[in-house]
Write a structure and sequence with these properties.
This protein is 26% helix and 20% strand. The chain is an alpha/beta fold.
Length: 575
Amino acid sequence: MDAHSRGRADEIDPADQWVLNPRTGNYELRLDHSAGQSRAPSATRRSAAPVPAPTPAETPVEVPVPGQRRRRLADQDGEGQQPPASRRKRKQGASRKKKVLLWTGGTMALVLIGGATGAYLLYNKLDGNIAVIDPIGNESKGFRKGEAFNVLIIGTDKRTGEGNAGYGDKDSPGHADTTILFHVSKDRTNATALSIPRDLMTTIPECQSRQSDGSILTIPGQEKARFNVSLGQGGRDPGCTMRTVKELTGLTVDHFMMVDFNAVKELTTAVGGVKVCVEKPVDDPKSHLKLPAGESVIEGEKALAFVRTRSSFGNKSDLDRIKVQQQFLGSMIRQMKSNETLTSPTKLYDLAEAATSALTVDKGIGSLGKLEEMAKELAGIDTKNISFATLPVIDNPDEPKPITVVPNPTQAPQLFAALQADVSLTEVKKKEQNAKNAQAQAQAKLLQGTRAEASAVRVDVYNGSGIRGAAQSTINWLQNEQGVNRSTNKSNAPEKAAKTTLTYAPNQADQARKLADMMGLPASALKPGTQDAGVREPMTLVLGADFKGAGVPVNGPVKAPDVEKVEADKQVCAK
């Protein structure tokens, strides 16, 4: 009796599962239940597209392959028959682990893609699982070498799926409850997962959404709105959330992947559970999460309760819940990349089915082939080079007792600029130094000389950037963080400026150099005059279209702010 008949399919070499399809001439992975292979129990899934039964001519024929034990294939009468000796053998390839890595591709953009990438082995069944939305105005482009790309992961609180009736808002079409912007570097060596708080007050731009009856609805823009209403509310689809993120960060969102509550339950079950850690016992009456102190392995309903819990962690805010979710996702990525998952055909199949059933994506990645292509782009990223961070925020100053937040006026633009410049949060120090060295060499001769003290710098700031509030945010940064107290907001410049310029008198050169150092101004931005200025006369700074944000170098090394972050390879205990 072999391992299949004992229900121990996980112990079979993955190479033993390959059989030849004589209709296509290709080897395929046998994962059907008729082979006796058991599947791990999982949460209820949406019905997948049925697979037509193979005709006799299409029935896969099992043939010997290197390292495979010879087994007999039962015919319709129950009698075994040996496969024809003339059948070609599968070519020897890479090691077992490399084969399995090929099936799974690169393990998901934040947990979801890993399951989908191996799914091409059962294309006809799994491809039909994926729900597709084509946002109006979104360009469905591929993954170009040498270009970074951004995928928006949207977790909605819509109450879909069996067992989810008690979650979310009753009768609501759902919100953008958990949103992560996943930035993949152009050299494919690192990625940043930026969480956007649902209670962030921001601008939701006007957008168009295709409704269920096929009509196109134009939804007006909304200022000072909660970020989470960018989805579902007012008829908004994920394309509206993509536009909101672009408006907020300045980053083009190339694709989106939307999941509901079932995704967490089904994916964690498919991989056999995810390891989490809490510093103290948890007994949360709202989420019904019960965990002992230390490490636990959770899946299904308990995993969903874990990522939904907030009243038992930190200051009981959504920001602390985000930290817990980031720790959970890092652990899940590690589990998906583990040998325990990669060498189990059963888990790979369950993961593929769970992931495809959970996904709603844009047209650009709306097939298994496209998801596989994306996963291959992620295959080389080590977990230590995947950073989780949260958008830096402060309490909303417009609220007497703040319950919402707004972007940190200094750190948020710096972080956006770092992502726009493709700076990795895991390699910031090295890249900063390289950029500083390059800038120093180019400007050494142009910016030689003494520097004034920050307290001696006098400057009037004009906004010619076209960015609302740019002059005031710069003044706030200069005065509060740089000590340039003799700075004044002169409002808008007479006209928009393409480049930022600093005009100064010859006797203000030391002040100009000091301000250039602070703002990362290139030598070309400095415009010396011919006549000395009076003792109290200020320099003139005009912010141009190259202005990226207060504290963000205009044309120098991009510096990522010192934000709290965690790498996906680290186990962190929730507090």
